[in-house]
Design a protein that fits this description.
63% helix
Length: 95
């Protein structure tokens, strides 16, 4: 829904939600919006890729999306290698 079509209450809610986002992700300590860019940690970027509600990561910049996918790929390779090693260990101990 376009912002212009929101009720006054809806506009206030949007402002408060945006301000809370700035507080969480940009360190804004004021009661005013600063428009500062969001800086995610590596872990937060990984979560953006894994969370089904954020499908497509349209809220991320192209650079953030690329970095998030690199982090995801690294995590997946590490997971796969660990799973493979565990499976090998399990098979060798059952013999």
């Amino acid at each position: 829904m376009p912002v212009l079509e929101l009720t006054e209450l809806g506009k206030t809610c949007l402002l408060r939600a945006t301000l809370e986002c700035e507080r969480r992700f940009t360190g804004n300590k004021t009661e005013e919006l600063t428009g500062a860019p969001v800086v995610y940690s590596r872990r937060e970027l990984l979560v953006q890729v894994l969370d089904i509600r954020l499908c497509g990561c349209a809220h991320l910049t192209p650079e953030q999306r690329r970095e998030a996918m690199e982090i995801f790929t690294d995590a997946y390779v590490t997971f796969a290698a660990t799973a493979r090693a565990t499976r090998r260990l399990s098979k060798s101990s059952s013999r």
